[in-house]
From TrEMBL, chain A:
Keyword terms of this UniProt record: Membrane, Transmembrane, Transmembrane helix
Topology term for the membrane: Multi-pass membrane protein
Listed PANTHER family: C-METHYLTRANSFERASE, MAJOR FACILITATOR SUPERFAMILY TRANSPORTER
Organism, as annotated: Paractinoplanes tereljensis
UniProt keyword Ribosomal protein present: no
The name this protein goes by in its record: MFS transporter
TrEMBL record, chain B:
Protein name per the record: TolB-like translocation protein signal peptide
Record SUPFAM superfamilies: Tricorn protease N-terminal domain (SSF69304)
Originating species: Paractinoplanes tereljensis
Top-level taxon of the source organism: Bacteria
Family annotation (Pfam families): PD40 (PF07676)
Length: 418, 331
């Protein structure tokens, strides 16, 4: 167990291996453990609802209505509160705790539909609450020059957990004679372990580390006015605009896989494997692309990720098919995730004042999430109007424009700050 | 606290939690181990019997029959376990787990419940029907992860004609006519098929937040909408009415009222059952509808209620679900 090797005394002289801060490793472990827990539940939930409780097809209405909109607001509020109290660990811990409690709630809900719905909402609310403070802690625990790599390590650990979760769930089901309550109990225990690791090993970093490792405290009062003033900073505004613009060019995993499935005529049984392929690529590429971002420029790698997405659309719009095309698309899609998800946070971190960092990160994540929501709905409509082929051509054109626009926006700001 | 102290505390608590988790799994694996009922010969062919899935302890999940005249009485329990079962005209369909992993298969059965053929299924099985002729089998499964907003469920309907070997992998490729006009949308979902004959069927289609009753044609690969807010249709033996579940206030979150639709007049009759029924009902005879009511996880009973709207629900088979009346089908 590598936890034992986590030492709070980070060597101040960085070796060529570019050590990742102990706090980041601790946060990564929390994410890994928590993702095992939550993906266990995600994997068996349909099985539980349909076979265990005998619910009919309308259960999808149950999770359908609970939308990203609500968690987006919660994320912003949580970010602001974490900054206001300068207690990011507390807010993140609250988020992890709520999700852990949601597993118990799922067990207690029995066959009550509103109860199950409430437990699922609580789980998502916890996730919304914890993301921004956690990412803020990563930026505050890492020297600015190594942020890309730090986020890469964190995201790799995170997706490793997501990978293991369904397997653990299957093992529990097999070991307990298909007892779903056993899955929820085990998931709750694992989530509690995650909270425990957070409490014991994650330090609440209140001031950022400078290159030398010394703390540079620059406390300033956190007020709604100062939080709102974040957008007045030209660089933050440019980044937010760029992130939203690029968010508008993402149509979502479901559509990408659906298009792939239609082109390649994949038997529906293999459908879940498309997501597995992408997360495998993401898992493997997160660290190298994060490290590359530190060396070659984070904005460039971030834009490169969207270029990979553009290539995905391009391939989907052409007639190239077969296993070569399939592997290429999944690989590029993994590159897209690895080069954008953590890297955007690494770009944003240093631009934001430390005391407002959680709010700022929450703002950018929310902007991106809402843009994605809009674009996925628009893509659905485009599909309805023009059919699949027309819709992918439309999104290809839109993505080219947004990439060009945000590249101009971000690279210019990037140079100006040099 | 020192690092050493924290590591020890974390290791201790983690070990305790994991031990608790493992203990729970073991206990869960060994509870309700009622002595299994010995398997007996079960006749799934046409006759005065009801076929169903038992939820009684000792025979949980196994296919069983009871005589029509004594439905709550002693049952003949087979050795075959299914999550959903249906039979008509000497052909039966069983949707069941495939190995220890969460995969499923469709088993085609003969009148003695012997497995003739199996096909892998994608997703969690939910509905099963056999056409009155016994030739065409249909099923609905839940699939996750292929809808466009992530985390949503979607459903997929499959059909297999055992006489011709024809299969339908999904109804989503069928040409849709909604309210008389051609319609297409990526959010189409189909579930709960019931057959008129080997070619014509009824099903639920959901799109843009509404759930329609559609009439379909397997050969022409078309479906057209007939009525709104109709789910899980079940055609009466005389072919004139559809028993279905109607979302209360058009909102499935409020539960479902078991109802009957007259296909000639499209008039709806709400049945006397006031509990929410989340099942694809089956017809006991032309005047009576039967359906499962859940009592909790792994517990359900089959009830009957008059199809004309009056009367009161009555318990038909305790500890049972997924009923099929074997006397309704052709010989």
């Amino acid at each position: 167990m590598y936890l034992a090797s986590v030492d709070r005394r980070t060597p101040s002289t960085r070796t060529k291996a570019a050590k990742v801060a102990a706090n980041v490793l601790a946060l990564g472990t929390v994410s890994l453990v928590t993702d095992v827990s939550s993906e266990m539940v995600t994997a068996v939930l349909p099985l539980y609802l349909v076979v265990g409780l005998g619910l009919g097809p309308a259960v999808f209405g149950l999770v359908d209505g609970l939308y990203t909109g609500a968690t987006a607001l919660l994320r912003l509020a949580g970010g602001y509160l974490a900054d206001r109290a300068q207690r990011r660990k507390l807010v993140a811990g609250l988020g992890y705790g709520i999700s852990a409690a949601a597993k118990a709630a799922l067990l207690l809900a029995g066959s009550s539909l509103p109860g199950i719905g409430a437990a699922i909402i609580a789980d998502r609310a916890g996730k919304g609450l914890r993301t921004a403070p956690r990412d803020a802690l990563i930026t505050l625990s890492t020297p600015p020059s190594a942020l890309g790599r730090a986020f890469g390590v964190h995201r790799a650990m995170d997706s490793a957990g997501a990978f293991a979760g369904p397997l653990v769930a299957l093992a529990v089901l097999a070991g307990s004679g298909q007892a779903f309550d056993a899955v929820f109990v085990v998931s709750g225990c694992i989530a509690t372990i995650g909270v425990l690791i957070l409490i014991l090993f994650v330090r609440d970093q209140r001031a950022p580390l400078t290159e030398g490792g010394a703390a540079a405290a620059r406390p300033g009062a956190v007020t709604p006015r100062r939080a709102a003033a974040l957008i007045k900073d030209g660089r933050v505004r440019a980044l937010l605009a760029g992130a939203i613009l690029l968010g508008l060019s993402t149509i979502g995993d479901g559509f990408v896989y659906l298009l792939l499935q239609r082109r390649e005529d994949i038997a529906t049984g293999w459908f879940p494997l498309l997501a597995v392929g992408t997360s495998l690529a993401y898992l493997v590429l997160a660290v190298p692309l994060g490290a590359l971002a530190d060396r070659a420029g984070r904005t460039r790698v971030f834009l490169g990720g969207y270029a990979a997405l553009l290539l995905v659309y391009l391939i989907l719009a052409t007639s190239w098919s077969g296993s070569g095309a399939l592997v290429t698309v999944l690989l590029l899609y993994g590159v897209f995730y690895a080069a954008t998800d953590g890297v955007l946070m690494a770009v944003a971190g240093p631009l934001l004042p430390p005391e407002l960092r959680t709010t700022g990160l929450a703002l950018i994540q929310t902007g991106q999430a809402l843009a994605y929501l809009v674009s996925s709905v628009l893509f659905g409509l485009a599909w309805q109007w023009f059919g699949a082929a027309g819709a992918i051509r439309a999104v290809l054109a839109a993505a080219t424009l947004t990439l060009a626009g945000s590249a101009t926006l971000l690279l210019r700001t990037h140079r100006a700050t040099r | 606290m020192s690092l050493r102290g924290r590591v020890l505390l974390a290791a201790g608590l983690t070990a305790t939690l994991l031990a608790g988790a493992v203990a729970y799994v073991i206990v869960a694996g060994n509870r309700d181990k009622a002595p299994a009922v010995a398997a007996s010969v079960v006749d799934a062919g046409p006759g005065e019997r009801l076929l169903f899935r038992s939820t009684a302890s000792g025979s949980y999940g196994r296919v069983a029959t009871v005589p029509r005249a004594d439905a709550a009485g002693p049952r003949a329990v087979s050795g075959l376990a299914c999550d959903r079962v249906y039979a008509a005209a000497g052909a039966a369909l069983c949707l069941r787990p495939d190995g220890p992993l969460a995969t499923y298969q469709l088993a085609v059965l003969d009148r003695h419940l012997a497995v003739k053929d199996t096909y892998p299924l994608v997703g969690v099985p939910n509905r099963a029907r056999v056409a009155p002729s016994g030739h065409v089998l249909t099923w609905t499964v839940f699939v996750t992860g292929d809808s466009y907003n992530g985390g949503k469920f979607s459903t997929r309907v499959g059909m297999l004609n055992t006489a011709t070997g024809e299969t339908v992998d999904s109804l989503e490729s069928f040409a849709v006519t909604r309210d008389g006009r051609p319609y297409r949308n990526v959010d189409l979902n189909f579930w709960g098929v019931t057959f008129d004959d080997d070619r014509h069927f009824y099903a639920t289609m959901s799109t843009a937040g509404r759930r329609y009753l559609v009439a379909g044609d397997v050969t022409a690969q078309t479906v057209r909408t007939l009525a709104v807010n109709v789910e899980c249709p079940s055609l009466s033996p005389d072919g004139t009415r559809i028993a279905f579940k109607e979302a209360v206030g058009g909102n499935p979150a409020k539960g479902w009222r078991l109802s009957v639709l007259d296909l000639a007049t499209l008039r709806r009759t709400r049945l006397a059952e006031t509990r929410s029924v989340d099942d694809q009902a089956a017809w006991f005879d032309d005047r009576t509808v039967m359906y499962a009511v859940r009592r909790g996880p792994k517990a359900a009973d089959v009830w009957v209620v008059p199809a004309g709207g009056g009367g009161a629900p009555q318990l038909l088979i305790p500890d049972a679900e997924s009923p099929a009346a074997l006397w309704n089908s052709a010989q």
